Amino acid sequence: MSLTYWDYLKLDELLDLQEAKSDPPEHDETLFIVIHQVYELWFKLLLHEIEKIKRDFSGNDLFGAIHTLKRVRTVMKTLVGQLDVLETMTPMSFTSFRDRLDTASGFQSAQFRELEFMLGYKRPEMLSHQADDAPHREQLVRRLHERSLIDHFHDFLAHQGVVIPDEEKSRDVTQPTEPNEAIQDGLLELYKKHPNLAILFELMTDFDEGLQEWRYRHIKLVERTIGRKLGTGGSLGVEFLKESLFKPVFPDLWAIRHRL
Ligand code: HEM
Question: Exposure check for the chain: N or C terminus, fewer CB within 10 A?
Answer without folding.
Answer: N
